[in-house]
Amino acid sequence: MRYAYAALAALLLTSASPEPAPSGPAILDVSVLPEPLRAGKPLSIVVHTAPDVISIQGSVLSFKFSVPKTADGTFSAHGRVPWFAHLYHGSFQIIFTAVDLTGKRSEAAATVRI
Questions:
Q1: Whose CB has fewer CB within 10 Å in the chain, the N or C terminal residue?
Q2: CA atoms of 109 and 47, how far apart (whole Å)
Q3: For 27-86, how does the pLDDT look when each residue is reduced to its tens digit (9 = 90+)?
């Protein structure tokens, strides 16, 4: 009987505490399509976030843009790759910054090829 109590106590101690919820804004994943990007061609950006995120801003090189909220935890934008992108070749980082109601920020990067 003593071993049963010890086993029960060990089970409770190892599985009783759930994972803590993330505090502040969190970017869960980012999708930039198509791959690779081409100047003048369509572009789609989808960012999934924690529900408390109120805005997303992206930046690549010195160009900054906002990604509109389309649903709880989802931000998306569609457009065309700017004409001047044909001047650039290679891989670039797009930095996405999430902001919540308290002003806390978090960042995530997506690599794109042109």
A1: N
A2: 11
A3: 999 999 999 999 999 999 999 999 999 999 999 988 999 999 999 999 999 999 988 888
Planar angle of CA 16, 17, 21, nearest 5 degrees: 150
Which amino acid belongs to residue 106? Answer: S
6, pLDDT greater than 50:
no
* Nearest-5° Cα angle at 39, 35 to 43: 50
pLDDT of residue 21: 52
CA atoms within 13 A on the CB side of 34: 8
Residues 6+ apart with CB under 8 A from 74: 46, 47, 48, 49
Judged against a pLDDT cut of 50, whether residue 14 lies above it is answered with no
